[in-house]
Amino acid sequence: MAGRRRRRYNLLRNRPSKRVIRDHLNPLEIYNDDEIFERYRFRRATVLYLLDMIGRNLLQSTKNNALPPLLQLLACLRFLATGAYHKLIGDSMHVSESTVGRCCRSVTDAILGIRWHFISFPRDEKARQTKQEFIKIAGFPNALGCVDGTFVRIIAPSNNEQDFVNRKGYHSLNVQMVCDAKFRFTSICASWPGSVHDSRVWRESALCQQFERGEHNGFLLGDSGYPCRRFLMTPYFNPQTDAQQRFNASLCRTRVLIEQSFGILKRRFSCLQGTLRATPEQAVSYVVACVILHNLGIQTGDVMDGKDQPAEAFNPHAHHVACNSQEGSQMRDYIAHTYFA
Description:
The chain is an alpha/beta fold. The protein contains 14 helices and five strands. Helices cover about 50% and strands about 10% of the residues.
């Protein structure tokens, strides 16, 4: 009897499963613009514009009932917007968990291919416009952007696990970004593990090398986690004069833009608020893709309600770095006494 049940069990287990043809519904035809934005963080016109830019680079399949490029894009946008498990996204779209994973990787790679259309540091006329925008906000002269780092939590990697443990005790990437006065990100360096200090990320970045070669006429604004350089202004650690106090106050009002930009980015793409369940390399791709999409949304006017923008308190003494260069300190003194005396 037991042998007969075992043979029947093996027969049923080895029987080829019946193929299920699932109906792939088009969410753009089901929901209105606000409902699409709520689920995918972009409205219909922007989704189609993005699809036109990257559609030819998405996975193509000759199989019957293959997932079309539009649904591949929507699956990835759904993941970036929510950070949900691939299985949950697959259930909502009537596709498998593995299909959602392939879509996320394929679409992310395609988005990275248009990076230079949306992330570029201002030069020439754009640089002059950026400086004028910063002057209108807080009266800080000659500023090209605000720089800071933010942690993006990831799962513990299998290699060099301790390198990714940040000062707060969890695994993360340390992502350095520069923003302009309109919350657009103009530079990103996302490949460093969480244990690396902001000052080293900046020192090793391509943007820092460009400033050192004199390619940009202006400077960035940072907190005391960065050394004061002729092209990187940081607050006075212990201001002695009224001019130095006004310098710090103006830098504070201007530099808070980067904190607000981080808040807007992470609120729009919730995958950056939780834990990215991916390898460090894939997590870097997701982060950069989110920044590209963030800038795309600003360019097309597809932005979230800004009434709840977070503005973290500015603390000029946080993570103080006492390795300011002499020319940087002299430039800071010149600006303080020329513009804020």
